[in-house]
Design goal:
518 residues; alpha/beta; 19 helices; 36% helix; elongated
Length: 518
């Protein structure tokens, strides 16, 4: 006697599970230009490394003689894999079965994804395509009614929240995503959306029935909508590009909060001094300049990975490497609102600061802050509340900060760029004060200017005098900055700082008090 019959059935069930929704359903998926969940996992992870969990979870079908004829697998594929040699937990909805709306086994596997990452303390990748539950039919039978979870069950979102404070979570919107999968998509540290995908709380038919708005999926929740709304961080042209962005994001972060981010062998000269930095900030304070060129020049070559570019665009946030060390980068972009802090930029800064604090990423700030955005729209957006919350998040940081004053630092918003105990460098182009020159003169000398024979000439004279008083040299003389430097020295000075903070980082491992929020 042997168990050959039973093992044959196990093998048969596995073969049927790999069919997913069947040849026709897979073909329809490909005809839409989309990969299946198994193909996505295969392209993301190291070749042959995926080890599935729960492949046998699903519903078998038998003939009258008890022989297995078919098998409907759980429509959430989940397991372990390696990504660039590092172990991850990875999963996602199978859109070829019920359009990704969870069947019972699929729902259980999807809910287990966060538990898996928490238990084994590995990064979690979720590749979303599908909706939430479906509306049940009305058969009139009590037994057919959904019972729901028992009142004593663990809340489904508990692990979704817990995982944000312990391991990196990266998600992708690979197709239409609605309901519960949409909520889990944004419950992440990094999210990327394929250009052709949509993210929706509810679909067009529900919206039209409830609100009378007749919109397409793209108009409701397309990539252009959510890149600006801040629902997702980045947009990718193709699925392959989205998967590559997830892989790149994870390369900067540790496996969990109990370890440091990986350090790579630097190929860029730590003493490199870019001549272009000497003249990149114009002498005319009214003229803009390209902050991203400064960031890219100082960081290791080709290492800057920007996140959430189109949301709160006056603030730049991203990851980079400096002498092989992973760092978080924030910077003002004077091309938008002169770099002023808007309500959206403040929310972006708060979330990014929390993220860096959770995963031990030192923060480097390139400062050109004119203050909070002003005006009626800014007041309606509660900018002062969001901005103050961002400053509070920065003040609660436990990671090291280095701030480079590139140009302006004015008003309360300037405090958002300097972490407690931070290292502060200043360029000769820096100007600091309570108000920008133009605003200060307009407020303090309004009567004198109005009464002058030549108001414009007096205004310019006063502005020039006030600008001279905002010179960085007195601050350096008073030790209000650690050093006033030649802009070309920025990279080597920051590389030295990273060496100095290494012992501090080594003893700071463990979950931080900061709570990560979606």
């Amino acid at each position: 006697m042997s168990w050959e019959k039973e093992t044959d059935e196990i093998r048969r069930r596995r073969e049927l599970a790999l069919r997913q929704g069947g040849e026709e359903a897979v073909r329809r998926q490909h005809d839409k230009g989309r990969l299946t969940i198994r193909e996505r996992i295969e392209r993301l992870t190291d070749e042959g490394s995926f080890r599935e969990l729960g492949q046998g979870a699903g519903v078998p079908h038998f003939d009258e003689d008890g022989n297995l004829t078919d098998f409907e697998p759980g429509n959430y594929v989940l397991g372990f894999a390696r990504l660039n040699g590092r172990r991850i937990a990875v999963g996602g909805e199978d859109f070829t079965l019920k359009g990704g709306s969870p069947n019972p086994a699929g729902l259980r596997k999807s809910v287990y994804a966060e538990e898996l990452a928490l238990q084994y303390k590995v990064p979690l990748v979720r590749l979303h395509e599908g909706g939430g539950g479906s509306v049940a039919g009305s058969s009139g039978k009590k037994a057919a009614r959904p019972l729901g979870d028992p009142v004593f069950s663990t809340p489904r979102f508990l692990s979704v929240a817990q995982v944000l404070g312990e391991v990196p979570v990266a998600t992708g919107a690979m197709g239409p995503v609605a309901g519960l999968p949409a909520a889990r998509l944004v419950a992440s540290h990094f999210s990327v959306m394929v250009e052709s995908a949509q993210v929706l709380i509810a679909g067009p038919k529900v919206v039209e029935r409830a609100l009378g708005e007749k919109l397409t999926k793209e108009e409701l929740g397309g990539a252009d909508v959510h890149a600006k709304s801040g629902v997702i961080d980045n947009v990718a042209a193709t699925e392959e590009e989205a998967l590559a962005e997830i892989a790149r994001f994870l390369s900067y972060v540790p496996d969990n909060v109990w370890s440091l981010p990986p350090r790579i062998d630097a190929t860029d000269n730590r003493e490199r001094m870019d001549e272009a930095l000497l003249s990149i900030v114009p002498k005319d304070r009214r003229k803009p300049f390209a902050m991203r060129k400064i960031v890219k020049s100082v960081m290791d070559e080709n290492s800057f990975f920007e996140m959430t570019k189109r949301f709160g665009p006056s603030l730049i946030t991203g990851l980079a490497r400096l002498n092989g060390v992973s760092v978080g980068v924030i910077a003002n972009d004077c091309m938008y609102y002169v770099g002023a802090m808007t309500a959206e930029a403040a929310q972006k800064l708060r979330r990014f600061s929390d993220f860096c604090n959770t995963f031990h990423l030192p923060i480097i700030s390139f400062v050109d802050e004119p203050g909070f955005m002003i005006g009626s729209e800014s007041e309606k957006a509660a900018t002062i509340r969001h901005g103050t919350a961002a400053i509070a998040a920065v003040m609660q940081s436990r990671v090291p900060w280095a701030s480079v004053i590139v140009h302006k630092v004015f008003g309360v918003a300037g405090a958002a760029h300097f972490g407690p105990g931070g290292f502060v460098l200043s360029w000769p182009s820096a100007a600091t004060g309570a108000l920008p020159v133009e605003g200060g003169v307009a407020v303090a000398f309004a009567r004198e200017i109005a009464a002058a024979a030549d108001p414009d000439a007096l205004r310019k004279e006063l502005e020039d005098k006030l600008a001279a008083g905002q010179s960085p040299f007195p601050r350096a003389e008073g030790f209000s900055v650690h050093e006033l430097i030649d802009p070309r020295e920025t990279r080597p000075r920051l590389c030295d700082w990273l060496d100095w903070i290494e012992p501090r980082r080594s003893v700071a491992l463990g979950p931080f008090a900061t709570t990560m929020r979606p």
